[in-house]
Specification:
With about 500 residues, this protein is an alpha/beta fold. The protein is built from 22 helices and seven strands. The strands form two sheets. The protein has a five-stranded mixed sheet. Strands 3-4 form a two-stranded antiparallel sheet. A hairpin with a 3-residue loop joins strand 6 and strand 7 (about 500-509). Helix 4 packs antiparallel against helix 5, helix 6 packs parallel to helix 9 (about 150-170) and helix 7 (about 125-135) crosses helix 17. It starts with 14 loop residues before the first helix and ends with a strand.
Amino acid sequence: MALTAPVRIADTVSARQFTGSASLGRAAAAVGVLAALISLAGSWIPSLWGDEAASVLSATRPVGSLLAMLTHVDAVHGAYYLGLHAWTDVFGSSPFSVRLPSAIAIGVCAAAVTWLCGRFGSRRFAILAGVFAAILPRLTYAGEEARAYAFDAAITAVLCVILAELMLRREPRSTRMLWMAYAATLAIGIYAFLYVSLMILAAGVVVLCTPHLRQEWRRWVVSSAAAGAIAAPVFVLAFIERSQIAFLAHRNVVNPDAVLVKMWFGDTPFAVLAWALVAVAVGGFAMDAVRSRRAGVAMGARLEVIALAWLVIPVAILLVASPFVAGYTARYGTFAAPAAAVLMAIGVRRIARMRWLAAVAIAAVLASAAPIWVDQRQPYAKNQSDWNEIAATIHSRAVMGDGIVFDEAVRPSRRPHLALDTNPAAFAAVRDVALETPFAASDTWHGVAFTIPEAARLGRFDGVRRLWVVEYSTGVAADTSGLSDLEALGYHRADRIELHRSVVYLYTR
């Protein structure tokens, strides 16, 4: 394992680094393709779940309806929904199709990480960092989910590539275009995910910690302000719709397991290995800083500065602010996850002189990531969702003319009706007798249903001899679907089918 030992980078880009750019580009592209395939493999197996349903139902409604919805809810996801709308118009809305863009985004993320690290070390070191990004549990999860988090990681990775180029160029005249690229990339990132705006502070730390960049602090201020101005609409709409995530304040999501394990690393064995390598990287960097200070020599541009600012500052702000603004769940740290991969690779590079130890560390990381990847691709991996089972049950057992009603007593993201909304073809034989407002006509991302008595008064059950009832199972005996009301309408239970998280009943009269 010929990883290079820790190196000190000059303040300018050497001719050798420019000469190797084509080779580094090919390596980055290859790692990017590998990362996309890792995220894509098996991505169609798990059922979609509530958050993904919000993406699919938003993307598949008419653009006018989508824009109207964004003025009420989910404006912070508007850019992603619009992009997914264009994608589903061409490629459809199957689980494989709607998750494919996220896998591609993780490919871009891993390629950017490879390029970033290649500017501060050997090609082998760069490839190692890219592979770590490709298998990092938080990123493989984001890469098989129809949400914007994979794009957030990719955009911030590109943003950090731009910061690296700023660090490595001493002449201010050569950085003007880079600052424009920084502003544009940051603005795009904010539209993709509001909290990418916290990367402004991370970039500020990079500027202040890089001696020759300090004189460009005004450009950082102007470029950051320009990005904020471009993204102003999303800030305004996010403030107006802030009550949408108020429920997070009632969840105990900020705890050691959520932050140290679940946010980036999936489970404890992988987290222990990852944090050990990060500690080696940080410890080595701290020793280098002490030596440089004692020698009176500036350290120059260092990859660790970017990685630590990227990993620590945005997430730390989210954690500190979470009790006050209800602004954190573990997935919100996805855009900082590539920085963890970078620091892990630096940790391996630090121990590279002991080749056997570096090889063991790499093998352990790969081996501990594999079972997490497999678990992420199980049928019920997405919040225990069993919508595929519901769809398969109705598709195989229902006959043309049957009616169907769904449990509406649970929160919108868990309603079994989403099985129909995300896979209507499987329910072609049945008629939704309780539907009041289809999701495409509502001012939120999901539809609205009548209660059984309300639907009965409207004559919705007339002529329906066989009725399917799909109930979300909470493990507590409760008539959440109004089953007793069906008996008053002359229905009697003919069958009960227990699924993973749901129960399907057949009633006849």
